[in-house]
Write the structure tokens for this entry.
Amino acid sequence: MALNGSNLAASTSYSSPILDVLDPTTNGFHDPPIELLEAELPEVDHDQVPLSELVSRVVQACYAEMTEMAETLPTMSDSARKRKLADFVVSWKKQVVKLYAVTKWSRDADIVQKCMNITGFLMNQNRQFDDAVHGLTYARDSLDGARLRNHDLLTSLDVLTTGSYQRLPTVIKKSMIPPPRFTDQDVSKILSDLETLTRSRLRMTEIVPVEMSNYRICDGRAWFTVPDLFETSICLRGGNRDDGWFFVHVEFLFTVGGDRTGVQEFPRKPTGVLKDHLAIEADNRLGCYLPMPEPEQPPDPNLPPPPERPKLPEDVVDTPLVRIYNFLQLMSMSYQLEVLWYQAERLRSLGWGDFLKVEMSRDRKTLSVSYWIRQTLARPSAGRFQLPSLGGTLKIELQTTPGPIRKPRARVLAELQDGAKLGGRKPSDTVEGTRWNVGWEPAPRALGIALTAEGTISAPDGLFVDAQNLDFERLIRMVIETHARAIFREFALRLRNNPVFSLPGAVAVVEEANLQALHVHLCADEIVVVTIEPRTGKISLRDTGDLGAAGRGPRFLAISEKLNENPTALLEALTRLRINTIVELAEQKANYLGLQTFKQRNFPREEFVKFGPTVRSLLYIQLTPFPTHYLVLVVTDTDFRYALISVKIVPDSMYQSLVMEDIGWLDVERICGRGREARAKKAAREPGFGGPGVESSKFRLETLVLRELYTYCCARIAHTKVEKQLKRLNIPYSHVYPPSPMAAAAPVNAVGMGHPSALAPLHSTLSHAIPALLIQSSDVLCDSAARDAAMPNIRVVPLAWWAPGASAKGPKVVTCVKLRHVQQLVGRRVTTASSSRGVLRPSRRIVYDAHEAVVCFLSDEVDGCMDEFREEWESVSKIVVIAREVVNMAKEKQWEDVRLLSFDLQTVEFTYASDYTLSISCEDQLLTGGSYNLHFGRLPPQGQAHNHRPNLHAEADAFLHALLRQGRLADALPRSSPSCATRCLCSRCWRASPRARCRRLPDGGA
């Protein structure tokens, strides 16, 4: 539709939705609706959040916190719940108010969105205007150079004179007409001629460094190989005499060792940008004095001319091969140094970062690595030992020398070549000498050790850069190992100067698992290993790994931490560790035996002087039967000493202090010398470090030896307590030692008395070291009515003192009395006694040997054992006398109706008047003056198991009992007896009573 003589559709190609809805029929265009205008605006939602998402998050957070409060509030106190609820209300009130404000603001969100859309629309229009301005500016600047080329006047003249052109431009010919291709024969001939020319120049005119004399010529190139550095190939630029060389390729001859990670970062054959850089630099050095080639096109007069190359004097000969050697030598060695630097940095990333410092010089020719880095205190405390901040420095440097280091043969060859090819002239360049300088400098007083000249005389033999094994970790570990070995040697020297570790083989520097270690023999089989961690340089202690040292890890860790603060305290730490280990081993063996041990007792300081000046530590073993006595293991520098002490509590002391009442030293060689022999033999069977060369048997406390010492102490205490009782009773005594361990178990002792076989299990192999106490019956039984029933010698021996531990019942005391007459066993226990070889045990505390007529009285308590013996003797002696008198009546009088039925040292049962029986027993002889129990009965008729017939004499039991206690039984019994035999028997019974016997002894004895 035409409007004002113009066609809008033909005038523009822009199509807008606004134009599609306009009605151009009348009065031109109307204003478009506001909705269409807003549709043209871009939608901008940058940094905007939907209100629904904000409300949802606030509600969810509030609900989650309320749920948590519902679970936790019941477990809180009332005040805590109120405080929690108050905090919750205040906090969420703030959040709700903020949400309410945001909701109010969201009412204007449509207006804000519309404004942001308009702003985005205007910014888009502004950008389009800027692009149009930049486009016009670029067009103006580029049209200045768009000019026509100069007219070809020659071609114009040819066309005007001849009507046609005579020639084409050379550029067109070269670009359109390809040159003729070489055949294989042509290529082969050219390469052969080039190789001949190369060989001639290398042999006749070119100065070849002796290091590059190993070369070959093939494929039109010269290949030079320098071991451990590089292999390169160069080619001639042409066949003229003055034509130079150009660089073709290079391969660096090194091998990356150690961790292969990152090898791809250092290819032997450079590629990409590195290869282009090397080619440009190498060509510049090969053509340093060659004239510049003429350009194919004339140079631009507007550009500055290229710099002219230097010219050589007439008496100087160009040596391009020397320059290329110097360049590639430096590149190869610098490349290897970069590989070492990369490996050092990678080592720091693998856990060495805090203890390894890597530095590279600005010229990239010196690599310095410091190890064992320590964090120094900003303000060290006064008097505290200060360690250096590092352990040492490894320096790898590319060092330039005035000339190469050559062998005599190589020097002669170089002089001959210079004389033949230079002809008295000077070379433009000389071979530069570049070598590796690897140095190691340990820090002074690293780990507190000032190394002697022997420890720092030189670096290890293998400390050099090996091109075929570039491994920085190998170099740093070699240095650290050498440093650790020197430190351990100094430590070992200090330890050997101490008397504690001065024995041969007590200290040794060894290598285990590629690490240096210091082995220190503590005692017995205990060896502590001191190592230096290669990465951190910290000292650590560990055991050799036996099961008994499983709990020593925390102690070793604590000692190691102290040593790392002050390594000079190693001697003191090892001395303390040695003492603690000795005490622990002894305590462990005591625990195996069930003994109660203490490392400390509440003694005053002055009490420890009693143990002597050489004491280093003490271990108290409490004697279970005697709580106030201790077996003390005194640890000295050389061996154990053993003491037996008795203690008492100081009255009125605040902390129940103890004092030693008595102390006695034990001779272990005499007590259990065979134990020492056994452990000496065991030590002799264990060769090697810590074996007999260091007298490992010094602190080798065997469990058997400790057991025997403990039991000996118990025996000595029991022995002493018995002696005190004898002294209290004014009873003289003497000591009797068995001649050998076997004699202690023999049935006959040195004085003619021995234990019955029933007491054989109560003997120990140590019994020969404990003497028996020999007393006289006239002394101990002077107040006894039956003192003449015992032989003169009575032996008192402590027993059962060899059972250590908390479960032991304690020592016992046995008193052996030999009777004057041997009384055969009769009665129901005859079978049992026969099977026991004549040994009868009527009660727990009495053992009777019928063959030897020996009665043994056992006391469970050492205190009061003599009183128990006298009480038991009064009872047993009366029964023995009564039994002997009954037997004598049957033999001497030949009364067949008198017969002994039973005799067991506590009860006598016999028959009288055919089938009448009487049983007599005694008790409470010392407390009540003696008490008799009489039991009258009758034998059952033949063929019957029981007899119900009464014995009429039982009715006079109380009367006869009183008469028996008063010794007047003979006066009363005949009147009650029905027959003469009964009266005679009663008379004999009266004679058998102890009081009647005592009255008749002065008149002539029994």
About this structure: DSSP finds 25 helices and 32 strands in the chain. The longest helix spans residues 109-143.
